[in-house]
Amino acid sequence: MIIGGLQKTTLIDYPGKVAATVFTGGCNFFCGFCHNPELVLVQKNENFMSEEQFFWWLEKKIGLLEGVCITGGEPTIHSDLPDFIKKIKELHFLVKLDTNGTNPQMLENLIKDNLVDYLAMDIKAPLQKYQQFYKQIIDTENIEQSVSLVKKFPRHEFRTTVIPTIHTKSDLLDIGKWLSGANKYVLQQFRPDKTLDPSCKNIEPYPEKELRNFCEILKGYFGRCELRI
Which helix (H) or strand (E) holds 212? Predict the structure, then answer.
């Protein structure tokens, strides 16, 4: 596994749990507004730490942490993700996985093998607009399959980082209709201080009040709608 970073303690990333967050390197999307640009193009020899170092550290957290969040980058591009999670589960930690939904087969296998306890999927835009934001071809059927898998999973959330130049009120309503019935949907504030595309630093984020209005409008589609600033 390419490990690009480690947050040793978080009270936010895994709802209701004290956890650590491990960042995998590499991503199959190249979102200009990505707030983890250092993880997108990371190479195998640029590991922040080795797996051995990570598990040496994690073993010392038994009884102190409840879970491990695996995020990226995009974790599901790594074929060794299941083995990586198995090692975490062997230490009796809960596992939360963040994904962009491009690898439904990996998600299905992880669910079938009881290797995940919480799923979070990033929704970039309404399905019909996905291709506008990326130069590579996106198989939207994979995105739809992943949405279906995540919605059926007992503990899940969807989330969208809201960008004024990309997401209109109408777009967010389309997302609400698409994901309707999901447990939780989170609107995340865009932070222009660090982005993959330097020009995105010039984008003025939506005011918090407007995001809260969006959240209020979307509440009817979900069990819960939250704003993450």
Answer: helix 208-218
